[in-house]
Amino acid sequence: MDTAIKLQTHSTRSDGPCRIALLYAGDREARLNPAPEKSRFAKVFEALGVLGAQAEPAVYHDDLRDEVARQLLELDGVLVWVNPIENGRDRTVLDAMLREVSAAGVFVSAHPDVILKLGTKEVLYTTRDLGWGCETHLYRSLEQLKRELPVRLEGGSRVLKRYRGNGGDGVWKVELETPGTLRVRHAKRGCGEETVSLNEFLARCEPYFSGEGRMIEQAFQPRLAEGMVRCYLVHGTIAGFGHQAINALHPQTSEPGPRLYHPPETPQFQALKEQLEQEWVKALQRRLGIDTERLPILWDCDFMLGAKRASGEDTYVLCEINVSSVSPFPESAVIPMAHAAVARAGAARRERRRRSPSQGDSRPPSSPSQAAKKAGVKRLR
Prior knowledge:
Elements (H helix, E strand, L loop, with lengths): L18 E7 L2 H5 L9 H9 L3 E7 L4 H8 L4 E5 L3 E2 L2 E2 L1 H12 L3 E3 L2 H7 L3 H5 L9 E4 L2 H12 L4 E5 L8 E8 L2 E6 L6 E5 H8 L9 E5 L8 E7 L2 E8 L14 E4 L7 H19 L10 E7 L10 E7 L11 H22 L12 H7 L7
Parallel strand pairs: 1-2, 1-3, 3-6
Antiparallel strand pairs: 4-5, 7-12, 8-9, 8-12, 9-10, 10-11, 13-14, 13-16, 14-15, 16-17
């Protein structure tokens, strides 16, 4: 590790190192030959090791579900990096397994239940009045979208977002061209502006309403072309920033530019940092019922620039919260992330030992179904 990086080395307990897995998507070959030192999480593995933890990869695929579950049930904690949609698959199988592992006493971040509260686009609607919101609307059905969208577009451009997704998939800028005709642009990389009928656009949105799906609408922010700021948080504290001058719906290009990373002390972001840490995160926790210890080890909030105040100061509008797979991230986040992971995994181990003092280390049962049964949790499929 870089000699400029200073860590307090310690072990979380006297009878052996805390064991933490980093779980990310891959296939059987990647699981057999994980090479953590060459992965995108190499610095995290290293930092955890310096802190006295035993970190190991847990390469995941739905076909490897039970094998990965057995691995996790022998550990103290797991940090998860899997997108809501990964290679055409959603997280249904993975999240059910993670709930079982958590019920058995293993620390899981981010927990699937926290993701459902915090990491879906509906959080924009749920928290629209907390100081970081704008005009926001929720569509619970395709029929509601068909009925209400044309009327709402008369008030100006809108951005529609599917309930769960990543990489700009299901995010659309929509404008009214003429009655029954829309000007739309998909936020996926390389997509340009199109003119389509209302019915054609509704057909494209139909898959977003399958199951528990829904869509969230925000008023388009005119200052989007001035860039976006991503705030990376460890629990409730900012650990770094990412600034992207050219973003997915930039009016002059369909190719987003690079995101430049900055440490948490960066002067130009201090006003946003103070608001987010001292006001908005606390209000978010109260609104959603999430204790600080349950906040993800690593998550981020994306902000657009809102209208300037009379004083000339910037305001900020929340664009999205990312929880499921926050990567890449600034190097300044690595050490805080490692400290938090070791603390939470160590607390999970101590809690297991407290509940079952006669079992010594109190490792969870080796079978995920046994673990869920013991914890009184029904196994989901």
